[in-house]
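Problem: given the chain below (216 residues), write out its structure.
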Amino acid sequence: MTAIAAAEKMDRQYRFQRHIYDATRTHYLLWRRRLIKELAPPRGGSVVEIACGTGWNLVRAARRYPQARFYGLDISAEMLRTATAAIQKNGLRDRVKLAQGDATNFDLQATFELAGADRIFISYALSMIPDWPSAIESAVRALNPGGALYIVDFGRMERLPHAPRWAFRRFLKHYNVTPRHDLERVAREAAGRHGMQIRFEESRRGYSAYAVLTKD
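Solution.
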């Protein structure tokens, strides 16, 4: 799928959903608050969210870390409209910059005049990106020395009872969401290629997956 086709697909999906997205997703997109809490960017550091959606994460992260600069990329112009409104409403226009971009192939220098990022995070987006391994690779390459990539997404869910697991996966499929069962393997391989440390874990029943890749 080309970047243009992907953008058009996401715009069709979220043209109307964006208005109710946060109200309907917050209760099952778990560990996002944990990710924000653990970001801890350095003073004056740069934080980039890949596939920032409605800006829910960016608003909360920017409030928590007033000493850092924040940037958000999303392929959907419709989602960026909602994110822009949220950032303006919260008085963060001077501290959070947004741009349309492809998670699998982005250039922080060209987009934000940013040589690299101290923190990059991807929250419940890999499960919607067809070429998601490329999104991980692009994020790792964009990190500054000492930087870290944070990922949270749906896990393998293998320890959930069969009936609710089947029902929830059907629900996710309706919204073009596919849990990445080999997320751990792909993340560990990326860390190995780039000489990075990695921490990976899943929630108790495998519902959510959480990874942190740290560059020396």
